[in-house]
């Protein structure tokens, strides 16, 4: 028998999947040097390429969001905690990048996504309770 789906499963799944895809594309762009900010933005960190930030983006946003989307698709109880974690990591990513690349409207959009993932994760936990916990 399949456990009941966690609350907000489809919404969390779609938002997480789209965010993971966008972060993966952004990571590839940073790793290949395509459509990147100037490398001079990284000089305070002692970096001379966007490779490490590209790997950081993949690890801190693309992978957690892909995992959250997978958990949503699988109707896992752990989707809520994963959404909270993915949203928090996305928020950290945004806060870390602002001092180096400045403010951008995309950061505002992604900030809304981060807050939404955290909120939906908490709502899913609250509405799902423990009845479908493994």
Automatic annotation (TrEMBL):
<keyword id="KW-0472">Membrane</keyword>
<feature type="transmembrane region" description="Helical">
    <location>
        <begin position="80"/>
        <end position="100"/>
    </location>
</feature>
<feature type="transmembrane region" description="Helical">
    <location>
        <begin position="106"/>
        <end position="125"/>
    </location>
</feature>
<feature type="transmembrane region" description="Helical">
    <location>
        <begin position="50"/>
        <end position="73"/>
    </location>
</feature>
<keyword id="KW-0812">Transmembrane</keyword>
<keyword id="KW-1133">Transmembrane helix</keyword>
<protein>
    <submittedName>
        <fullName>Uncharacterized protein</fullName>
    </submittedName>
</protein>
């Amino acid at each position: 028998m399949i456990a009941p789906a966690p609350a907000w499963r489809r919404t969390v799944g779609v938002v997480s999947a789209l965010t993971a895809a966008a972060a993966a594309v952004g990571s590839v762009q940073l790793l290949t040097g395509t459509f990147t900010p100037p490398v001079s933005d990284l000089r305070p960190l002692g970096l001379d390429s966007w490779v490490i930030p590209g790997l950081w983006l993949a690890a801190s946003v693309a992978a957690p969001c892909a995992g959250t989307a997978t958990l949503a698709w699988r109707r896992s109880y752990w989707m809520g905690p994963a959404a909270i974690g993915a949203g928090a990591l996305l928020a950290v990513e945004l806060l870390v990048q602002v001092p180096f690349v400045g403010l951008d409207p995309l950061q505002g959009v992604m900030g809304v996504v981060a807050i939404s993932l955290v909120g939906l994760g908490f709502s899913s936990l609250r509405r799902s309770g423990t009845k479908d916990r493994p």
